[in-house]
Amino acid sequence: MKRIFFLLAMAAFLVSCATVSDYPLTLSYAPKAAGGDEMRKGTIAVPQFVDKRKVADTRYIGIKNDEARFIALLDDPAAAVSKAVAAYLESRGYAAGRVNERWDGSVQTLKPEWGDRVVGGAVEEFSLTVRSSSLVKMEYVTTVRLFVVYADAAAKRILHQERVEASSSYVTVSFNKEKAEELINKALADAVERALAGADDYLLKK
Fold first, then answer.
1. Domain CATH code at residue 70
2. Cα(85)–Cα(97) distance, rounded to whole angstroms?
3. Which of 35, 73, 101, 179 is close enough to 24 for a disulfide, judged by CB 3.0 to 4.6 Å?
4. Cα Rg of the chain (Å, integer)
């Protein structure tokens, strides 16, 4: 009998110490093909976006039912946003000069060597939450909020700045990791495309 109690106690201890596995997600963005023939519009410097979320691990994306975490498998959210911004600009006829330095969008931290046209900023929110809303429903909620800045680094001048947010919710009957990945990448795409929709107004030389 004592042996049985010992085994039960050990089993309970092991269960209490067990950690819930993380769900690694691949963050990616593929811009839609631009209509018509895009002319070459010059080079835009794209520094790395700054992650301003209050998270201990910059790979963190969100959580499932208050237990398992969603984490970025390769690029963290800030790196994924930076790459998406560069990819979008390239799809619209610009040459994106990717700068391996972070820029928070402030005029004080602009570097003249980046040139006269720069796009950068900060990731303010990048989240995916999946929770059971009832016995037969699973709800996915995504939010991506970016602070995007256009600047002339050579002249130390901000040309334009704005905050954009893309959010959505989706309800289904069961959890699917691929669906979670699809939804957070859609939010990434929506936020980047909204932020850069008017890029020509600020980046094309008059």
1. 3.40.50.10610
2. 11
3. 73
4. 21
- Per-residue tokens: 180: 């979670």
Question: 3-class DSSP state for residue 3?
Answer: helix
Q: How many helices (H) and strands (E) does the chain have?
A: 4, 9
The CB density around residue 52, as the number of other CB atoms within 10 Å, is: 16
Q: Is residue 45 part of a domain?
A: yes
- For the chain, the domain total comes to 1
199/15 Cα distance (integer angstroms): 53
**Measured between alpha carbons, how far is 170 from 192 in angstroms, rounded to an integer?**
20
pLDDT along the chain (206 residues), means of 10: 48 42 95 68 95 96 92 96 97 94 95 96 98 85 98 95 96 94 98 96 80
d(CA 37, CA 111): 33
- Domain with 104, as residue range(s), is 24-203
Asked whether residue 19 is domain-assigned, the answer is no
12 domain residue, yes or no: no
Instruction: Please state, in angstroms and rounded to a whole number, the distance separating the CA atoms of residues 154 and 44.
Output: 12
Alpha helices in 18-138 (DSSP H): 77-91
pLDDT reported for residue 135: 72
Tokens matching residue 103: 């820029």
Q: Is residue 3 part of a domain?
A: no
